[in-house]
Amino acid sequence: MTPSLWRALGEQAEVWPGRNWPLGATWSPESTNFAVHAPNATGVWLCIGLDGPGEAERRYALSEQSLGIWHGALPDIAPGTRYGYRVDGPHEPEDGMRFDASVLLLDPYALAVSGEAGAAWSVVVDPSFDWQGESPIRRRFLDTVVYELHVKGFTKLHDRIPEEVRGTYAGLGHPVVTDYLRDLGVTAVELLPVHQFFSEPALVERGTVNYWGYNSIGYFAPHAAYAASGDRGQQVTEFKEMVRSLHAAGIEVILDVVYNHTAEAGPDGPTYSFRGYDDRGFYRRIPPGAQHEFDDTYWDVTGCGNTVDTEDPLALRLILDSLRYWVTEMHVDGFRFDLMSALTRTAGTNVVPVDMACRLLTAIGQDPVLRHVKLIAEPWDVSMDGYLVGKMPPPWVEWNDQYRDVIRDFWRGQSAGTQTVATRLAGSSDLYADDGRSAYNSVNFVTAHDGFTVRDLVSYDVKHNEANGEDNRDGSDNNRSWNHGVEGETDDPEIRALRRRQAANLMATLCLSNGVPMLTAGDERGRTQGGNNNAYCQDNEISWVDWRADDAWLDVYETTKSALRLRREHPALRQRHWFEGRPTIVGGPKDLAWLHPSGREMTDEDWYDAGLRTVGMFVSGKPLRTPGPHGEQQIDSSFLLWFHAGAEQVEVYLPDNDWVFAGSVVLSTDPGLPAGRRVEVGEVLTIGARSVVVMEEAAD
């Protein structure tokens, strides 16, 4: 497509031809190139927002089109300029086309967004930034401790952060935050969605918002509401400054990304961007039957009205371009993919099955940038066949909800024995060893943003989501929680003490299990949501981290910090290779031995004893099976970890052996066995009810 005929010699086109790549708005001092994909459109107008009184926008018809991409360049466009598109074409929903030139559309490749839903503009951005020599950390998963947090909620109530930057990227990059995370032992923050998102109209109508952010609309734009400095491109700079600050503290940045659906919901939902350019291509429809006829019915396995079609070349390109942009330009270190299973679908006749050789997984695995960053899958969607825990291909690691369920059941006294508990403690080999993956392919967690906090997990039997306005119907009923005798907060000192010990047990178990531990922000200090297990619409004190000391469970914090220190300082407690239950050196001890309280090794009968609530885990450090970075033999302390979930105290026998003769307690949730207590082989040790006790081999 080319411009109209010239009217006279010497004319100059108002819109320069530009080029069809890269997509989006590419600024330079001379001109800004605009390129947008709309293959079935009949007309596209670039709209420049005007800040002065009078006319709201100035429109420019794009006359150049190639390969379905409309493009042009304008001189004298300053960074911070607002822009959008109006796109005309057939409105034929039965054929998957919903063009409407009356709607101002966001650029799918916009680097920043200004304004609210229904009145939002894309923003031209100058990408230059002084990274001051910052470079990727590239820490191994083996050495990683993930901390899931919400950008706003983590600092909104922090009294040591300047009020004007609380709840923002600048607040998260503040030294108060980086010092806290580093002191705790965190090595990576996993940020709940920071791609530009909008709240669902139904939430806005009832006076709430989408707090979590799983409703993306701009896959290149940092969410503007989290910026203290402005929304005309300043949010991009502020995000980069946050990353630079976290990296300077040795903390990696992982983004929770929502490529499986968008804020446009179902076919009757609002049109903000993608639907207005290529509805038929971008959103997946139900698969055709034997007649191969197109059916406009949206195919939804996200529970949000639509599912992005990763088989569409331009949808796939957008996802890959977005991922590369956040790595190369924004310097993030990895991604956690929300509802990953929805992105792995390959359409067939009457079905859309999961396909581990799908285009997206194949492309990421071959990409020289993306294959080397941290890739974490939430390996399920809302369908029955989308549950993929243990099935993602290398190099992906996975959220392991089976770890969560087993460990919760163990500590609430509902375990059917210790066999599966031991498997989870040792890295879930039943899920990951069969295809050559390692224990660090399991991201272990006991809580996440979705569900109870640890404090609520030990304080409530059932959910209390009344504040959400859905009559407490929302949120899971399968919480595997226990209130310890009273529902909610109580003044009973015995129950309060037991709850705090149980919270410490959960945190210590998580931090000392083989695999990658993921903590949820505030769990280490007793954050509560008042029993709300689905606080997705609670942008208030229900969700924000309370930094006051008067209600903080600081004993749980100290246990968590100590457990992470042990993990960090001792490679025996974060091993790369699977335990084999046999010596690592001729004549040496087994690398892992499971002990019965009587002192013997666990037998087959013991493993299936549904009444057994205690298991000892002996981990040898002399030497480790894995060599060091230069091939050297690694020697560490040996450890004996006791996990006792019984309601009564238990006596454990420390067996005589040829390798370890004495040690000391280095971590304990039992007040009767404080850290520093020396222990000898042959001794009978009494462990209090519901306790974790970790003993380290003595150096002498």
Description:
This protein is of the alpha/beta class and 700 residues long. It has 16 helices and 29 strands. The protein has an 8-stranded parallel barrel with strand order 12-13-16-17-18-19-20-21. The N and C termini lie far apart (83 Å). The model has no long low-confidence stretch (mean pLDDT 96).
How much is the radius of gyration in Å? 28 Å
The class by helix and strand makeup works out as alpha/beta
DSSP, total strands: 29
Termini separation: 83 Å
Low-confidence stretches: none
Work out the helix count. 16
Q: How would a textbook summarize the main sheet?
A: 8 strands, parallel, barrel
Q: Report strand %.
A: 15-25%
Helix content: 10-25%
> What's the arrangement of strands in the largest beta sheet?
12-13-16-17-18-19-20-21
Provide tags for this entry.
single chain; 700 residues; alpha/beta; six-stranded antiparallel β-sheet
Write the layout of secondary structure elements.
Blueprint: E1 24-27, E2 31-37, E3 43-49, E4 57-61, E5 64-66, E6 69-75, E7 82-88, E8 91-92, E9 97-98, E10 113-114, E11 121-123, E12 146-149, H1 151-155, H2 169-172, H3 175-184, E13 188-191, E14 195-197, H4 201-205, E15 216-222, H5 234-248, E16 252-257, H6 274-282, H7 313-328, E17 334-337, H8 340-343, H9 359-366, E18 374-377, E19 397-400, H10 401-411, H11 419-425, H12 429-432, E20 442-444, H13 454-457, H14 493-512, E21 516-520, H15 554-569, E22 592-595, H16 604-607, E23 614-619, E24 639-644, E25 650-653, E26 662-668, E27 678-680, E28 684-687, E29 691-697
Parallel strand pairs: 12-13, 12-21, 13-16, 16-17, 17-18, 18-19, 19-20, 20-21
Antiparallel strand pairs: 1-2, 2-6, 3-4, 3-7, 5-6, 7-11, 8-9, 10-11, 14-15, 22-23, 23-24, 24-29, 25-28, 26-27, 26-29
Helix pairs in contact: 10-11, 14-15
